[in-house]
């Protein structure tokens, strides 16, 4: 097994942070709904379930990347692109500090997961049998 470069650990940590934020948002909406603070409980409950499901999927991608699974790179990249979309909408609503934090987070995650060291470990050169690295 190859040694894990810092870039993979950093990318997995950023992805885990995004998963934690999505999970916290889902729990926040769910608790608010259960306490009767939601304006529309019929919309809030599915939103909370969706956020918790997304947190689980994002967390699984972070775990896969940390375990050096090559399949995890694509979901991590897509997650960071979605974080950039959220940052855009934060900027359009005047929440510039949140936008800057999200852009920095997504840039760090993308830089780490697309770094040459990450690519070298996740996608080693083809061996003599013609098969690719880990599945």
Explain the overall architecture.
With 135 residues, this protein is mainly α. It has one domain (6-119). It has 5 helices and no strands. Helix 1 (6-34) runs antiparallel to helix 2 (41-66), helix 1 (6-34) crosses helix 3 (73-92) and helix 1 (6-34) packs across helix 4.
What about the largest sheet? none
Overall pLDDT score? 91
Count, helices: 5
- Approximate strand percentage: under 5%
Strand segment count: 0
Q: What is the helix fraction of residues, given as a range?
A: over 70%
Name the helix and strand elements from N-terminus to C-terminus, one letter apiece: HHHHH
Going by helix content, strand content and strand pairing, the class is mainly alpha
Radius of gyration: 18 Å
Low-confidence stretches: none
> Shape, please?
globular
Number of domains: 1
Distance between the termini: 13 Å
